[in-house]
Design a protein that fits this description.
Elements: E1 3-17, E2 20-27, E3 36-39, E4 43-50, E5 58-61, E6 87-93, E7 99-105, E8 115-121, E9 135-144, H1 149-159, E10 168-171, E11 188-191, E12 196-203, E13 209-214, E14 219-224, E15 227-234, E16 237-239, E17 244-250, E18 259-267, E19 279-285, H2 308-315, E20 333-344, E21 359-364, E22 367-369, H3 377-383, E23 415-417, E24 420-423, E25 428-435, E26 444-448, E27 453-460, E28 479-480, E29 482-485, E30 489-496, E31 501-507, H4 510-515, E32 518-523
Parallel strand pairs: 1-4, 3-8, 9-12, 11-19, 20-25, 22-23, 24-32
Antiparallel strand pairs: 1-2, 4-6, 5-7, 7-8, 9-10, 12-17, 13-16, 13-18, 14-15, 14-17, 18-19, 20-21, 25-30, 26-29, 26-31, 27-28, 27-30, 31-32
Bound molecules: CU-O-CU linkage.
InterPro entries: Cu-oxidase-like_N, Cu-oxidase_2nd, Cu-oxidase_C, Cu-oxidase_fam, Cu_oxidase_CS, Cu_oxidase_Cu_BS, Cupredoxin, CuRO_1_LCC
Pfam families: Cu-oxidase, Cu-oxidase_2, Cu-oxidase_3
Family: Belongs to the multicopper oxidase family.
């Protein structure tokens, strides 16, 4: 492979959306950010320079970062933030991966505007396991706020209440014609008849899973989270924040009209408010002859916002292309992690806007994770001097088991801490991620850094350790980095801890991340030379 250099200058830029001009953080003045493109086997060096007053850090979502955990990026987990005027070069190689991933800021809510595609092409002279597409097009879904997103989250954290919701969804940064004065800001995909297009879809929205459809067209899904899947046909896509999905779109040879709508709207089962709007874009045919047909555009209806059955049906179709896939057949360590909301008491002399006057929190196994503030976990771990920054007692299962998905149980209180799980090198791990109905059942897109995992099982209700493992797929389960844990249900994942470092695992809803739905794995070095995390690069930021 070769080395590819990308300068990332974090700078302010004015953009106008929904009739309002706003100053946003961008990489190199672009919104959304430009793609980082590389081939499997290449080394990528991204030199970030911070020209704004916010602290920043960047994550290469889905990149395995084998022995390069220092380049992973979550603030206070693998690095201190890059401060104003500072630079840091993220340096990693791409091993054993090809497909669509993405990059985004990983501190506070800055990823709202700091994000872009990360496209890994197969090795030279290696083709896709599907016919070569005529063209490849990134489709980034986002969420637009008229307000400053940093103000939105700091207000929510101050009052303990839920944050204000977004004002629009976007496709490649554009809200489209269904919003006020946005008709000129509509994404148009220009296509020729009878051709195949590879759509590289990324959900970069902060807090919403989305349904996506192109009227009168169907898709062939070929890849998820940069892993090939057994192709399947669908007319609807479900994509959670953090996830990426590659689909083939075969255009019609004789379309009945020159333009068709594409549209995305939210899937939401939680409590409280959400942005229940629809972003539309246009699929525009370039036809050799002039068609007089200006058939009025019609959006085929998207599923209702709470259509959990559509989501379950869609996610059940994913299978690894490889059969058998390399899924661990035996497990060294088993975990059961509840994922859900909770609350912290309101400080004295304050009124709070969370549930029953409390402050919203979110947790795994009733532990709400607190980020360190003066040093990154990975630095602490590597130096061998913990100084009380973290503990290694993150519970392997809920301390007091309860009816997770029953009527709201009386245990909404969380405890706060920086708790981790330590795994010896090469441990095979199974984690059952169990949604809870504490403050309402809700789907949670759980993301693991530094690994892909196999989704060996999913179901509704409480996971049953006596019956459910018999139904696990240990042959060709889908391999991903982000899984939508079913609303009121569970998902079981397996991975082999073969990458030493400190690896974040969290809900990819930004508000849940802010509320503490996160934890970290510490994977120890192995015995052999190629199994040890090298020392930190000299330019690693300090706090
Ligand atoms: Cu895409 Cu830790 O996140």
């Amino acid at each position: 492979g070769i080395t590819r250099h990308y300068p990332f200058n974090v700078q302010l830029h004015n953009v106008t959306r929904l009739c309002k001009t706003k100053t946003i953080l961008t990489v190199n003045g672009k919104f959304p950010g430009a793609p980082v493109v590389a081939r499997e086997g290449d080394r990528v060096v991204i030199n970030v320079t911070n020209h704004v007053s916010n602290n920043v850090s960047f994550h290469w979502h889905g990149i395995r970062q084998l022995l390069s955990g220092w380049a992973d990026g979550p603030a206070y987990v693998t690095q201190c933030p890059i401060q104003t005027g500072q630079s840091y070069a993220y340096n990693f190689s791409i091993t054993g991966q090809r497909g669509t991933l993405w990059w985004h800021a990983h501190i506070s809510w800055l990823r709202a505007t700091l994000h872009g595609p990360l496209i890994i092409l197969p090795f030279k002279n290696t083709s896709y396991p599907f016919p070569k597409p005529h063209k490849e097009v990134p489709i980034i879904f986002g969420e637009w706020f008229n307000a400053d997103t940093e103000a939105v989250i700091s207000q929510a954290l101050k009052t303990g209440g839920g944050p204000n919701v977004s004002d629009a969804y976007t496709i490649n940064g554009l809200p489209g014609p269904l919003y006020n004065c946005s008709a000129n800001e509509t994404f148009k995909l220009r296509v020729r008849p009878g051709k195949t297009y590879l759509l590289r879809m990324i959900n970069a929205a902060l807090n919403d899973e989305l349904f996506f459809k192109i009227s009168n067209h169907t898709f062939t899904v070929v890849e998820a989270d940069a892993v090939y899947v057994k192709p399947f046909e669908t007319d609807i896509i479900v994509i959670a924040p953090g996830q990426t999905t590659n689909v083939l779109l075969k255009t019609k040879t004789n379309p009945s009209a020159t333009t068709f709508y594409m549209a995305a709207s939210p899937y939401f089962t939680g409590q409280g408010t959400f942005d229940n709007t629809t972003v539309a874009g246009i699929l525009q045919y370039k036809l050799p002859h002039k068609t007089s047909s200006t058939t009025p555009l019609k959006i085929q209806p998207l599923p209702p916002f709470n259509a959990t059955s559509v989501v379950a049906n869609f996610s059940s179709k994913f299978r690894s292309l490889a059969s058998p896939a390399n899924v661990p057949q035996t497990v060294d360590k088993k975990f059961l992690f509840t994922v859900g909301l909770g609350s912290n008491p309101c400080p004295k002399n304050k009124t709070c806007q969370g549930p029953n006057g409390s402050m919203f929190a979110a947790s795994m196994n009733n532990v709400s994770f607190t980020n360190p503030t003066t040093v990154a976990l990975l630095q602490t771990y590597f130096s061998g001097r913990n100084n009380g920054v973290y503990t290694t007692d993150f519970p392997a299962s809920p301390l007091v088991p309860f009816n997770y998905t029953g009527m709201p149980p009386n245990n909404t209180r969380v405890s706060n801490g920086t708790k981790t799980v330590v795994l010896p090198f090469n441990t095979t791990v199974e984690v059952v991620l169990q949604d809870t109905s504490i403050l309402g059942a809700e789907s949670h897109p759980l993301h693991l850094h530094g690994y892909n995992f196999y989704v060996v099982g999913q179901g509704f209700g409480n996971f049953d350790p006596r019956k459910d493992p018999a139904k696990f797929n240990l042959v060709d389960p889908v391999e991903r980095n982000t899984i939508g844990v079913p609303s009121g249900g569970w998902a079981a994942i397996r991975f082999r801890a073969d990458n030493p470092g400190v690896w974040f695992m969290h809900c990819h809803f930004e508000v849940h991340l802010s509320w503490g739905l996160k934890m970290a794995w510490i994977v120890l070095d192995g015995e052999l030379p190629g199994q040890k995390l090298p020392p930190p690069p000299a330019d690693l930021p300090t706090c």
